[in-house]
Amino acid sequence: MKIAPFRIEQYYAVHEFTAPHMLSSSDAESVAIAEVLALEPDAAERLFAQRLGYTESVGAPELRAAAAALYDTTSPDDVIVVAAAEEAIFVAYHALLQPGDHVVVETPCYESALEVARSAGADVTEWCRSAGNGWAHDLDALEAALRPDTRLVYTNTPHNPTGLLMPRQVLDRVVELCAERGAWLFADEVYRELEHDPADRLPAAVDLYDRALSLGSMSKTYGLPGLRLGWLASRNRAVLARIVDLKHYTTICSSAPSELLSALALRHRHVFADRSRAIVLANLELVDAFLERHAERFSWVRPTASTIGFVRIEGVEDTSVFCQQLVADAGVLLLPGTVYDVPTHVRLGFGRSAMPMALGLFEAWIETRS
C-alpha cells in the first residue's frame, strides 16, 4: 500500500505540543477523568475494578448501546467501536473498496478521506466546494462527478474545515443520488450535536439510508479526544462484519478503560455537548469582533456548527509562511489551508477556554506587523 503523507498530522507533530497558544484546535475543551466519573455515583468504583484484559472486537455492549442511542433506527448490533475516526475511515474504505472502484469525496476535507481511498486503489473524484460561492454545495457538480457504478460517496457535515452545516435539501438529494446507484454513503458526522443552534441539527445518514455509514467520535463535540474512541453505525450488518474483519488486522479491540469512560460520557453526552456549545458561542462573539476590527485583512463564511472556521487572509497566497512566522514570533498556532489545498485560508479553532488569550496575542502580532 502506498499512501501520501498526512499533512495535517505532520504539521501538528511539529507544533502542537510546543506552541504555547493553540488557535487552530479542532476539538472542544477537554475535561479531567474525575469530571466524567462524577456523572454516576459508582463510576469510580467500576473503573478501578475494570480488568485490563482484551475487549470485544465490535466494542463493549454498554458503549455500543450508548452510541446507538444517538440514532432513531439503530440498535447496539448496528454499531461497532473503532479507535477514533481515523481507524473508521481506514477500515471502512478497505472493507468496501476494490482497486478501480469509483469514489466521490467532498472537499476540502480531512486528508485521510481522500488518501485512504486512493491507497485502496480507488479512482477518486473530488466534489469540490469553493470559497468563491460561499462554500455552497453544488449539486450539479456532484451529479456530474457521479458515475452509474460509483461505489461510495464521502460527505462531512458539520464540515471540517469550514464549520458549516449541509442544508437539509442537499443531504436529501445526496441520499437520493446514492440510492439511485446503490452507492455507499460514508457520512462523517463527528461534529454532530455541536450545531450552534441545536434546532439546525440534521438527521444522521444512517437514519435516512440503508447503505449509509454514520461516523461518530468522542473527540470533537464531547471534548474527549484522549479516550481515542469512535464508532460506525450502519443498518447493513454484513458490511459491519467485513469492517470488523479488517479491524482484526489493525487494533483488534479497544482499550477497556476507554470503553467504560466513553460509555459513561455518552450516557450523559448532553453535559459535554452543552458545555462545548457554551464555550464555542462565547468565543465566537470574540472572533466576530476581531474580524470586524480587521475586515480589510480577514474574512470568512461564519460557521454554523463545530469548533472551527476557515478564514481567508487577504493578500496572502500561501498561508503556510504566515503561520510559520506567527508561531515562531508569538507562539500562536493556526493551521495553514495548504493542508487542505486551499492555501489562501487558515483554520481557526474556537472550542477551547484559552482561545481568548490566543486570539489576543494573534491580534497584537498582527498590529505590530501592520
Question: Overview of this structure, please?
Answer:
- This protein has 370 residues and is of the alpha/beta class.
- The protein has 13 helices and 13 strands.
- It has helices spanning 7-15, 33-37, 43-49, 61-68, 84-96, 112-119, 139-145, 168-181, 237-247, 256-267, 269-293, 319-330, 355-369; strands at 21-22, 79-82, 102-107, 123-128, 152-156, 184-188, 212-217, 230-233, 298-300, 308-313, 332-333, 335-336, 345-349.
- It has a seven-stranded mixed β-sheet, with helices on both faces. Strands 9-10-13-12 form a four-stranded antiparallel β-sheet. A two-stranded parallel ribbon has the order 1-11.
- Helix 5 (84-96) crosses helix 9 (237-247) and helix 11 packs parallel to helix 13.
- The longest helix has 25 residues, at 269-293.
- The protein is globular.
- The model has no long low-confidence stretch (mean pLDDT 97).
